[in-house]
Design brief:
- The complex is a heterodimer of chains A (about 140) and B (about 425).
- Chain A is about 35% helix and about 40% strand.
- Chain A has five helices and seven strands.
- In chain A, strands 1, 2, 3, 4, 5, 6 and 7 form a seven-stranded antiparallel beta sheet that branches.
- Chain A starts with a strand and ends with a helix.
- A six-stranded mixed beta sheet of chain B has the order 4-3-5-6-7-8.
- In chain B, a hairpin with a 4-residue loop joins β7 and β8.
- The model of chain B has no long low-confidence stretch (mean pLDDT about 95).
- Classes of the chains: A alpha+beta (about 140), B alpha/beta (about 425).
Chain lengths: ~140, ~425
């Protein structure tokens, strides 16, 4: 199962100028490359979520720098960059009664789209997606994107 | 290991102790009347003469003394002895006004050490112990007070003073410190620095006891300190005006023992000045029965506590007070509701997701007061799901609301955002006064 899962880095950040810069600076000096990135915000604070090329290393770098940080297992779903791809995936989740906690997507260099999702039942989600021949990107493949 | 430092005094029958107090009180009022122009004037103004004080109950005829009196008579106008008899001065920081100066004769210093020697013995600290004194040394009474007390019981003193935390931890480890005395907020900071340095206080040091005081702290914080460091935490009490740290809990951890042969305790209703029954919260008023240099008569400390008069399970007969729940002048009034920082601390320290640091910020937005509590959560409580974080905020908000009866804004802040303290910590920022 490990090879089907992506370890996402999540960070707690106060909503004030300069916080993102200090996170980005840490990653820059550690030579870590960000693959996908999003901020969920709620007034006084935000949750930064990102997928990076060396997740464990990034976690320890940020932790040692004093950030409140965690690693979460999410799924990286490869989609054809054509109309209807998202709809198909959403239907699979809907039929299997799998709930999405959050999702974000980006387009890769190979003209594919990558959807990152956190779901409530990750093993069930992997099984259902595979049954429907939907491709999951693991950590190894992600590093190559 | 002796169970008592001075068994005869410490376990004296209550009736005998009262007689002793009565004798000492009668002597004291004559002493201050004859030797301090300040007290003579104050007594005369109140129409009370030393002869009027015959029983312990007569203490209520005497006027109170306030911190302001020490300021008005700055520096030594209240003293009962000439300079030639003084062994030492201490002074307050003067952050809230003119500093207050307190003088000590050699006997005063010895009584101070005696009081702490009894206290240290009551928690089993003796000659085999190494006591690290991480209170500030100098004019602040914490450092030298704890220092002399631990020397008196024969413990080995490590006079680190406050600050330079990495080095303190290194010495604690290398020399085998068994007990520490500092402010609770400084010890919290030490735990944090130790963690960063890869030191686990529980496993990597010999520390088993801590004496924490000089600022109000809650029972819940005590439990946290004990859980996180594996030591026993004891409340230590004193004020610079009385003689710095003087009293602690005993091993039973059920109240701070006030040595009745040295100090007389009253707990009064802050508004009416009437004594409150045992077990009820009131303002602490202390009369020094043995001090020579500057005795204090019915000194209103403004600390809030409860009194327990029945003898302790440990066999000591002297009265005890519960931990200081706050200061009557620390109270903040937000939208007409009284809030004590200690209440907020009790609530927060009971929530496992909340970290060890918080700050209360009071402001006025338009015509309305607002109170915000900034909180550093435990790293383990952080979730990448916004709904979890909002649920945590809601949980903290409603816990505070149910105790304070006040709607409070809760702000989660990053770890390390709130100030750490090496001495007395500041828990409230009131922006309304600016």
């Amino acid at each position: 199962m490990e090879d089907k899962v992506i370890k996402q880095i999540s960070l707690f950040a106060e909503n004030k100028p300069g916080r993102l810069a200090s996170v980005a600076n840490k990653l820059k000096s550690a030579g870590i490359n960000i693959r996908a990135f999003t901020i969920a915000e709620s007034g006084d604070f935000g949750i930064i979520r990102m997928v990076v090329d060396r997740s464990d290393y990034a976690h320890s770098v940020l932790h040692d720098a004093g950030f409140t940080v965690s690693e979460t297992s999410v799924l990286g779903i490869e989609m054809e960059d054509v109309p209807g791809s998202m709809s198909r995936i959403a239907e699979v989740f809907g039929e299997a009664s799998i709930n999405l906690d959050y999702a974000y997507a980006f387009v890769t260099r190979e003209q594919k789209a990558l959807l990152i999702v956190r779901v409530n039942e990750i093993e069930k989600a992997i099984k259902k997606l595979e049954e429907n021949n939907i491709k999951l990107i693991g950590m190894k493949e992600l590093e190559k994107i | 290991m002796p169970e008592y430092w001075d068994p005869e005094i410490e376990t004296m029958p209550v009736e005998d102790l009262k007689k002793l107090q009565e004798e000492k009180l009668k002597k004291l009022v004559h002493y201050v009347y004859e030797n301090s122009p300040f007290y003579r004037k104050r007594f005369d103004e109140h129409g009370v003469r030393p002869e009027d004080i015959r029983t312990l109950e007569d203490i209520r005829k005497l006027p109170f003394t306030f911190k302001q009196d020490l300021r008005d008579t700055y520096p030594t106008g209240m003293f009962c002895v000439p300079n030639s008899k003084l062994a030492r001065f201490h002074a307050s920081s003067g952050t809230t006004g003119k500093p207050t100066v307190v003088g000590y004769t050699h006997k005063d210093i010895d009584d101070w050490a005696e009081s702490l020697a009894r206290a240290l013995t009551s928690v089993g600290v003796g000659k085999d112990d190494i006591l690290q004194v991480s209170y500030g040394y100098g004019l602040f009474t914490g450092g030298l007070g704890a220092h002399y007390g631990s020397e008196k019981v024969g413990a080995t003193v490590l006079p680190t003073s406050s600050g330079n935390t990495e080095r303190q931890l290194e010495l604690m480890k290398d020399l085998g410190t068994t007990a520490i005395a500092c402010t609770p907020s400084y010890f919290l900071y030490m735990i944090e620095v130790a963690r960063k340095e890869g030191i686990n206080i529980r496993d990597d040091t010999k520390l088993t006891k801590g004496f924490f005081g000089a600022e109000p702290w809650s029972e819940e914080l005590k439990k946290r300190i004990e859980n996180e460091s594996g030591i026993k935490a004891y409340d230590i009490y004193g004020t610079s005006e009385l003689s710095g740290p003087l009293f602690t809990e005993c091993e039973e951890q059920c109240g701070i023992h006030i040595w009745g042969d040295l100090f007389l305790v009253e707990i009064l209703d802050p508004e009416t000045g009437e004594p409150v029954p045992d077990g009820e919260t009131g303002e602490l008023v202390i009369t020094t029965l043995a001090k020579e240099a500057n005795p204090l008569i019915r000194y209103k400390i403004k600390d809030l506590t409860r009194k327990m008069s029945e003898p302790c399970k440990c066999g000591r007969t002297h009265p005890r007070i519960t931990r200081i729940s706050g200061r009557s002048d620390d109270m903040i009034i937000v939208r007409g509701i009284n809030v004590f920082p200690g209440q907020v601390e009790s609530v927060l320290m009971n929530i496992p997701e909340v970290g060890n640091h918080f700050m209360i910020i009071v402001d006025r937005i338009g015509p309305l007061d607002s109170m915000t509590v900034q909180i550093e959560m435990h790293e383990s409580a952080f979730s990448d799901k916004m709904s979890d974080m909002m649920a945590l905020k809601k949980k903290i908000t409603s816990a505070l609301k149910s105790v304070l009866n006040l709607a409070v804004n809760v702000e989660l802040v990053e770890h390390g955002f709130l100030p750490r303290s090496e001495g007395k910590s500041k828990k409230v920022i009131d922006k309304r006064k600016i």
